[in-house]
Design a protein that fits this description.
There is one protein chain. With 273 residues, the chain is mostly helical. It has one domain. It has 14 helices and no strands. Helix 7 packs across helix 13.
């Protein structure tokens, strides 16, 4: 697993496009927070807050994270190296987790410079560092959870094709639907079901964490969401492995189905509570 994680990090950070992808996120945030005039500008708003960044970040991540994740499996398939990876002495699940961890590390590297914003805004406040730090750290936790969900969807999209651009587009659509889809559709359903439908979306749980209170229901939601996407990616890769005429293990399909069912039940329970 360590080998795959390091390999992915070196491939991404060893290419100038990787730095461009991460740099765009920082530059856009900086422009809206400090340069572009308006209510989103910290200096124009007149009060110390990072609300602009935490409002814009999920929308920027819609493009940033799929761009990070698009190559994870698609490039292996295109180069014909996926078959070689599947012949190594580790499981498909270990391969999926390793690719996912590499994406998470890259996302954390992208988020790290934003801590400078928190320090700067704190220094600009009337009383030094007079910020709602509970809300700030809650927002960071929520943003990380949201990013992890996007990464799992991006990895899943990358297993569907050997074309990185197609994987990017699929991931963007999936992330958009997961983030804002239930909010856009809830008005089509009876009033009694509206809250449950909204709770199916990432946005509602992200906003809940952003208030500074870490609710276990939100954490469990994101864990289940990630597991569903990662198990889906695992299933597709296993099918690909079987198509390579390697040692197929049909008995693994039944436990996987059970795991899917359990995770879906827990996710639904989190949405109903």
């Amino acid at each position: 697993m360590k080998y795959i994680v390091i390999k992915e990090l070196q491939a991404f950070l060893g290419n100038v496009s990787g730095y461009i992808i991460m740099g765009v996120f920082i530059v856009l945030n900086s422009l809206f927070m400090w340069i572009v005039p308006g209510e989103n500008n910290v200096l124009d708003a007149g009060y110390a807050s990072l609300s602009t960044m935490f409002f814009l970040a999920p929308w920027m991540f819609l493009f940033l994270i799929p761009a990070i994740a698009m190559r994870l499996i698609a490039e292996e398939r295109k180069n014909g190296t996926l078959e070689l990876l599947l012949m190594r002495p580790f499981s498909v699940w270990q391969l999926v987790i390793s690719k996912y961890l590499a994406a998470i590390i890259l996302i954390m590297l992208s988020m790290a410079p934003t801590l400078i914003y928190a320090i700067t805004v704190g220094m600009l406040s009337q009383n030094s560092f007079d910020l709602d730090w509970g809300g700030v750290w809650g927002s960071y936790i929520g943003l990380f959870m949201l990013a992890s969900a996007y990464a799992s969807l991006g990895l899943f999209a990358s297993t569907l094709t050997d074309n990185q651009v197609v994987a990017l587009l699929i991931a963007i659509v999936l992330c958009f639907v997961a983030f804002i889809g239930p909010d856009a559709l809830h008005s089509l359903f009876p009033t009694a079901s509206q809250s449950n439908i909204i709770n199916l979306g990432i946005n509602e749980h992200y906003l809940s964490l952003s208030r500074g209170v870490v609710d276990t229901r939100d954490v469990v939601y994101f864990i289940c969401f990630n597991l569903i996407a990662l198990f889906s990616a695992k299933t597709i890769i296993e099918n690909k492995k079987n198509s390579y005429a390697t040692m197929a293990k049909p008995t693994t399909k039944k436990p996987t189905a059970y795991i899917y069912t359990i995770v879906l039940i827990v996710l639904q329970a989190c949405c109903l509570v």
